[in-house]
Amino acid sequence: MIERFLALDANHSFRLRIAEKPGAVRSLAILFAHSGDSWFWLGGLGLVWWLGGEFWQKRAAVMFVSTVILAVTVMAIKFTVRRQRPAGEWGGIYRRTDPHSFPSGHAARAALLAVLALGMGPAWFGLLLLVWAPLVVLARVAMGVHYLSDVLAGVALGVVFGVLALSLLPQLAFPV
To answer: What is d(CA 140, CA 30) in angstroms, rounded to the nearest whole number?
Structure first.
């Protein structure tokens, strides 16, 4: 049963793959695939916390801490499951530093950030990340560094962590 599921997963993932097809769509997929990188978000959130006003500092702090906790959880799951990434050339940095694909950390992070932005506001920021997140998720499959089940599990994990973080804010006396 599991072998059949994995075969279907690989087949459907391969159909979405554009990593080997040059063009504008591939270039956009590369941009979105990288835009969910943890170093980019943690660095950016750190800058917002350092340079922003109180409104943005609070949001950056919640997003930063939530992202770190989620990353630790994702890595624990990855090293427990140990599913190898799909074969391919693109994404060498990901393949070298993290050979495991399940669940997708990028998908989890994108979903987490979108949920937090929607929950904390402002509305334009939440809507922006709500549009951005699925593009990151699809790009990870399109560029061949994840299977569909990897990103779906990542999205589910990110949504759960986002909802949990939002539900804990009042208890932390940290209204945003």
So the answer is: 8
Tokens at 176, concatenated:
């945003």
106 is catalytic: yes
Tens of pLDDT, residues 75-109: 999 999 999 899 888 877 888 888 899 999 999 99
Active-site residue, 34 included:
no
Q: What predicted TM-score, i.e. pTM, was given to this entire model?
A: 0.91
Q: Which of 25, 76, 68 is nearest to 43 (CA)?
A: 68
Q: Cα separations (Å) of 146 from 43, 53, 65, 94, 172?
A: 24, 37, 25, 10, 36
- b/e map 17-36, b = 16+ CB within 10 Å: bbbeeeeeebeebbebbbeb
